[in-house]
Amino acid sequence: MSRPEKENPPEIYYNNEEAKKYARNTRIIKIQTKMTERSLQLLNIPEDPPENDELAPVLEKIEDKLSKIETKNTSENEGTELESEGSYESDSPFEDEQNSEDEELLALEQELESLKNRRKSSFILDLGCGSGLSGQVLTQNGHKWVGIDISESMLDIAVQRNTIGDKILLDMGQGLPFRTGVFDGAIAISSLQWLCYSNKKTEIPFKRLSTFFSSLYKCLSRDTRAIFQFYPESPDQIEMITTAATKSGFTGGLVVDYPESTRAKKFFLTLFSSTTIKQVPKGLGGGENLSQKDVVQYVVEDKYKKKYQNNQRKKRNWKPRKKSRQWILRKKERQRKQGHKVRPDSKFTGRKRKDRW
Ligand SMILES: C[S@@+](CC[C@H](N)C(=O)[O-])C[C@H]1O[C@@H](n2cnc3c(N)ncnc32)[C@H](O)[C@@H]1O
C-alpha cells in the first residue's frame, strides 16, 4: 500500500477534495474515533479532587445513617438476648425497614464514589487535528482543546462541523508557539509520521522533529503525557522519533495494542513530560509496553517476524508450474483420491519428451 506521506506534502495532499473524502468516510471516522478514545485512556488524566464542601454533606448523611443503624442493631441485639430465653422463631417486623435503610446507604455511598471519580476537565492540545474527529471525542469527554493542523482544507471541515475547540493553521515541524506549561496533555492521531518525510532540501526531518518535541515539552505542564498514535514506516523512523523526543526531555516508550493482528495492531508512542522514569502502560490484546531503549529492537524483530510469516505464507501457497513433473504428480494423486484409475508413477512421469523429427 502506498503511503500518502510519500505522495505530497500534507498541506497539498489534504486539499479540498481529499479533506471532503476523509470527512465523509465512515470507516475512517470509526477508526480515528476509536484511536482517540484509546489515546485519551493512555493520557490518564488525573481525577479532579472534589472540594471538601462538596463531599461534606454526603459524608455527614452517611455517618448519620450508619450511627442510626448501629443504635438500632444494639437495641435489637439486647431484645433478642432477652427473648432467646423464651426461645421462639424471630420474624422481625423491622426487616423491610432495614432493607430500605441499606438501599439508602448504598445510594449515598455511590454518590460519594461518583463525586470522587469525577474526571478533571483538562486542556488538551490536538496535534494534526484535521477535520476535528479527535476534537469531538475530547469534547464528549468533557475536555477543552486547541487543535493545530497544516492543512487549511481539513481545518475548514473542522469549522463546518462546528467543533468546539480553537483551531490554528500551523506546521508542527516549525515548533509550537504556546505559553509554557499551558496544556494538561497532548494527543496526535495519525499525524506524527508526516514529520519523518521532507519535501524540500531545507527540511531535515530530525531537525523538525527536535524543534517540535522541544516546543511541545515546554508547553506541557510537568508530569503530564503526550500520546501519539502513528504509523511508522521503518525501525529507523522510530529511532529518529524517539531520539528526538528523548533529546527534548521526554521519557516514555511504545504501547503496542493487538500485536498479533495485522489489522488491529496499533502503535502509541507514550511520552511523559517528567524526568523520572515511569512505567509505560501495557498494550491491549496481549500487547506490549516497551521502554524507549527496547522500542527499536522490538520493531526490528517485528519486521523480521513479518518477513518470516510472509515467507511461510508464500511456501504454503506455492503451486508447481503447469505441466511440470510436480504438477503432474499432484494431479495424479488428486485423481487417485477421487477413485479414478491412474497409471502408477515412474521415473518417466512428467519427463519431457524429445522432439521428434
Ligand atoms: C490522517 S490525518 C488525521 C487527522 C485527525 N487527527 C483525525 O484523527 O482525524 C493527519 C493530519 O495531520 C496533519 N499534519 C500532517 N503534517 C502536519 C504538520 N507538519 N503540522 C500540522 N499538521 C500536520 C494533516 O494535515 C492531517 O490533517
TrEMBL record:
<dbReference type="GO" id="GO:0016435">
    <property type="term" value="F:rRNA (guanine) methyltransferase activity"/>
</dbReference>
<dbReference type="InterPro" id="IPR022238">
    <property type="entry name" value="Bud23_C"/>
</dbReference>
<keyword id="KW-0963">Cytoplasm</keyword>
<feature type="domain" description="18S rRNA (guanine(1575)-N(7))-methyltransferase Bud23 C-terminal">
    <location>
        <begin position="276"/>
        <end position="354"/>
    </location>
</feature>
<comment type="similarity">
    <text>Belongs to the class I-like SAM-binding methyltransferase superfamily. BUD23/WBSCR22 family.</text>
</comment>
<feature type="region of interest" description="Disordered">
    <location>
        <begin position="309"/>
        <end position="357"/>
    </location>
</feature>
<dbReference type="GO" id="GO:0070476">
    <property type="term" value="P:rRNA (guanine-N7)-methylation"/>
</dbReference>
<keyword id="KW-0489">Methyltransferase</keyword>
<feature type="compositionally biased region" description="Basic and acidic residues">
    <location>
        <begin position="66"/>
        <end position="75"/>
    </location>
</feature>
<dbReference type="Pfam" id="PF12589">
    <property type="entry name" value="WBS_methylT"/>
</dbReference>
<dbReference type="InterPro" id="IPR029063">
    <property type="entry name" value="SAM-dependent_MTases_sf"/>
</dbReference>
<feature type="compositionally biased region" description="Basic residues">
    <location>
        <begin position="309"/>
        <end position="341"/>
    </location>
</feature>
<dbReference type="GO" id="GO:0005737">
    <property type="term" value="C:cytoplasm"/>
</dbReference>
<keyword id="KW-0949">S-adenosyl-L-methionine</keyword>
<dbReference type="Pfam" id="PF08241">
    <property type="entry name" value="Methyltransf_11"/>
</dbReference>
<dbReference type="InterPro" id="IPR013216">
    <property type="entry name" value="Methyltransf_11"/>
</dbReference>
<keyword id="KW-0808">Transferase</keyword>
<feature type="compositionally biased region" description="Acidic residues">
    <location>
        <begin position="78"/>
        <end position="103"/>
    </location>
</feature>
<protein>
    <submittedName>
        <fullName>18s rRNA (Guanine-n(7))-methyltransferase-related</fullName>
    </submittedName>
</protein>
<feature type="region of interest" description="Disordered">
    <location>
        <begin position="66"/>
        <end position="103"/>
    </location>
</feature>
<feature type="domain" description="Methyltransferase type 11">
    <location>
        <begin position="125"/>
        <end position="221"/>
    </location>
</feature>
<keyword id="KW-0539">Nucleus</keyword>
<dbReference type="GO" id="GO:0005730">
    <property type="term" value="C:nucleolus"/>
</dbReference>
<dbReference type="InterPro" id="IPR039769">
    <property type="entry name" value="Bud23-like"/>
</dbReference>
